Amino acid sequence: MDWRERVAREKRAAYRDWDYWGRPVPGFGDPEARVYVLGLAPAAHGGNRTGRVFTGDRSGDVLFASLYRCGLAAQPTSVAAGDGQRLIRARMVAAVRCAPPANKPTVTERDTCAPWLSAEFARVAGSVRVVVCLGGFAWQAMWPVLRSAGFALPRPRPPFGHGVEARLEAAGSAPGGGQILLIGCYHPSQQNTFTGRVTPAMLDDVFRRAAVEAGLA
Fold this sequence. Notes:
It contains 7 helices and 6 strands.
């Protein structure tokens, strides 16, 4: 928290005229989402600056472009809250709400934010049919959320990997009933995109798969 607020005060030179958000960053998207996208944490000069997750940083540039190509976003970019961007039957959230030092959230931060994440997911659990986890950190963070929402977890749990899928059956008390498909996807971080570990085509494959599974394509 202290670091998040210090960054908002000191700012980056390129954004010295910005009034940084500097607070926990809420989820963003359709209140009746069928595709739920879970990331790691707001970037110090991205979501921590704009107040919208994945907005205003290079990871978000790659992510929103893919969502747009796959019919899940109204615009190919998002640079600020209020810029007209709109997610189409999709919602994006971060496992950790506050920007962490070096953009590397800790397990302690993940566990601290877990109740918030569960509450955030509960708002759309009745409509969501696919959860896309961006990175292994998000993959691990999502399991207890799904369990608390009433979904039966597979044993053993599948390890994270790009394109890995796990289909979870809902218990009778789960919102909406039915199933949810969990899909792993490499995070569109600069480290991954610059090295080619994840490419735009790879992201498109995941989100097109999600759109089809969710009945949106």
